Amino acid sequence: MADDEFRYLSGFGNEFATEAVDGALPRHRNSPQQAPLGLYAEQLSGTAFTQPRAVNRRTWVYRILPSAKHPAFRRIPNGTLKSTPFDEIEPDPNRLRWNALPLPAEDHPRDFIDGLYTVGGNGDSRTRGGMAVHLYAANKDMRDRYFTDADGELLFVPELNAVDLHTELGQLRVSPGEIAVIPRGIRFRVELPDKPARGYLCENFGAAFTLPERGPIGANGLASERDFLTPHAAFEEREAATVVQKFGGNLWAADYDHSPLDVVAWHGDYVPYKYDLATFMVIGTISFDHPDPSIFTVLTSQSDTEGLANVDFVIFPPRWLVGEDTFRPPWFHRNVMSEFMGLVKGTYDAKAEGFEPGGGSLHNTFASHGPDAETYARASTQELTPQKLDETLAFMFESRWTIIPTLQAVQAGHRQRDYDDVWSGLSRNFR
């Protein structure tokens, strides 16, 4: 299915109403004595009933069978998917970097669930705080297998090829350069229009992602609400399906006698959505100095401390550099926040080499980081004419808490054990 064959509704945080069959939505009420077309009415609450309207999220769905119609779930192996508590190893202050996660072999097909690989995380999914960094690498469609995450919402960042997300509320195609968010508890399956597919996944255990405040920037800039897209209602019917649920950090499965994606109509604001990162309005200096990277925040999960994010999603997209008498790449830095960086395409302007698309780096609380020796030598001596950074897209999952890597990530064959060497060429220039 071509991307233009997917139908979307526009807006962030909107109250939407959509139906796949005319007349499926009841008028002026949520739960009539008999829902239209013989459907069942069901509410999906993403927040507590009594949370303020500004953050309260719920959706009413009208489905062929209630989601309650299923047998007991059974435990299944977690594979390379890990969750809280992240305590396999003691916290380590060292900087880490990885090459891209290897793709599955053609003769060993893996779907999205089997292809999940956890890099690290923090917090506690059971008390709804913290986050986890996962990767996915898959070469098989999920046809009669479905996934849902009761522990957190999922932020998709495709790196290699698109993914089609078939959710309870409709279908999204998400290509490299776009992101998608599937809220906690919503069921979905993943198809791969081009195989194989690989990307990054941020599992947010805390408050739902929202747009950051603009402050003195004003009413415009950064990500615009109208550029976020939510799917129209779509449904499917089948006689057998397996639903895999992440619950309490583990995987559970149940066999259904129907598809969990049988919602014919819905209205509400607890919804999956996607966003094209090319529509992000980049803010930067037009005089001197490189601004703090928070100026590139697309989405934020707020904590109970103002200005301190549970997790931020930050991008480093194509942009103009025009600062005068300025070291233009990101500067040397130590930070109370912890940063996992990934690269969707191109080259990151603070690393001349070694940081490849699909790879990642982890700089935890107060770990010293910044441009490598080659980048510093070039940027500190180049002629400062206006420069366009193009054909690049890096991003960062930034969290208030230390991101503890998993044992498998530390021991991985694709980990760069010589990462510290990128700074070894820095020399004394004091005179």
Radius of gyration: 22 Å
CATH superfamily membership of the largest domain, which one?
A: Jelly Rolls
**How many helices?**
2
Sequence of strands across the biggest β-sheet: 1-16-20-13-10-15-8-7-28
What profile does the largest beta sheet have?
A: 9 strands, antiparallel
Q: What value does the average pLDDT take?
A: 95
Distance between the termini: 63 Å
**Number of strand segments:** 28
Give me the CATH architecture of the largest domain, please.
Sandwich
Q: What is the overall silhouette? A: globular
The SS-based structural class is: mainly beta
Contiguous runs where pLDDT drops below 50 for at least 5 residues: none
Question: Could you give a quick summary of the protein structure above?
Answer:
The protein is an all-beta fold. The chain has helices spanning 373-379, 407-410, and strands at 8-10, 16-19, 40-45, 58-63, 74-75, 96-98, 116-124, 129-138, 145-149, 153-160, 163-167, 170-174, 178-182, 188-191, 197-204, 228-231, 241-247, 250-256, 263-268, 273-276, 297-302, 309-316, 319-321, 338-345, 360-363, 387-389, 393-399, 404-405.
What attributes characterize this protein structure?
mainly beta; 431 residues; Jelly Rolls; nine-stranded antiparallel beta sheet; single chain; 35% strand
Question: Could you walk me through the main structural features you see in this protein, from its secondary elements to its overall organization?
Answer:
By secondary structure, this protein is mostly beta strands. It has two domains: 67-262 and 269-277, Jelly Rolls; 280-423, Jelly Rolls, CATH 2.60.120.10. 3% of the residues lie in helices and 35% in strands. It is built from two helices and 28 strands. The chain has helices at residues 373-379, 407-410; strands at 8-10, 16-19, 40-45, 58-63, 74-75, 96-98, 116-124, 129-138, 145-149, 153-160, 163-167, 170-174, 178-182, 188-191, 197-204, 228-231, 241-247, 250-256, 263-268, 273-276, 297-302, 309-316, 319-321, 338-345, 360-363, 387-389, 393-399, 404-405. The chain has a nine-stranded antiparallel sheet with strand order 1-16-20-13-10-15-8-7-28. It has a six-stranded antiparallel sheet with strand order 6-25-24-27-22-21, with no helix packed on it. Strand 7 (116-124) and strand 8 form a beta hairpin. The longest helix has 7 residues, at 373-379. The N and C termini lie far apart (63 Å).
